[in-house]
Amino acid sequence: MNAENLFRQPGPAHWNVVEIHSQLEEIHKSWAQILRLTEPQWLILMAIDELDEGRGVSGIAVASKLRIHPAFVTNQTKKLETMDFLAREPSPQDARFVQMSLTQRARAEISKLSIKREALNSTLLDGLDEATLEYLNKRLAAIAKNSRLASQKLSIGVL
């Protein structure tokens, strides 16, 4: 299939992407329900877990990673803090901003899911070796980058 025709008419590749998105959304909802969280709260925790290098993570960084509004991140992280899933501390560089990190409780709850998550990943990626996954990830990263650009162009009327 010619790359130019990929999204001209919804074809198999388009519908595969839609299907994968839908299934991943259901998986995220399942993990969230186990912890009695909403799907966005689960994704916020996962983003913080991935982004935190020991100094905490800003709400802007989380919003950027998840492509959601920073005010929504603030609202949800305050709820997660009251549930003892997040610690929010003033940034040492600028007290107007907070740095967030997972609490011990959050790490323990996520750790309890690790065996199920590993089993799920094994099922999800069955039949794909390391080289194939690396190749696929590079291509998906390129498509993600290009789709952000295409979306921006479409929203400002360039396309």
Account of the protein in words:
The protein is globular and about 50 Å long. Helices cover about 65% and strands about 10% of the residues. Strands 1-3-2 form a 3-stranded antiparallel sheet. With about 160 residues, the chain is mainly α. Strand 2 and strand 3 form a beta hairpin.
State the helicity in percent bands: 55-70%
Order of helices and strands: HHEHHEEHHH
Structural class: mainly alpha
Number of strand elements:
3
- The radius of gyration computed from the alpha-carbon positions, rounded to a whole number of angstroms, is 18 Å
Give the averaged pLDDT, no decimals. 92
Lateral arrangement of strands in the main beta sheet: 1-3-2
Assign an overall shape: globular
Helix count, DSSP H or I runs of 4 or more residues: 7
- Indicate the low-confidence ranges by residue numbers: none
N-end to C-end Cα span = 22 Å
What is the percentage of strand-forming residues? 5-15%
Question: What is shown here, in short?
Answer:
This protein is mainly alpha-helical. It is built from seven helices and three strands.
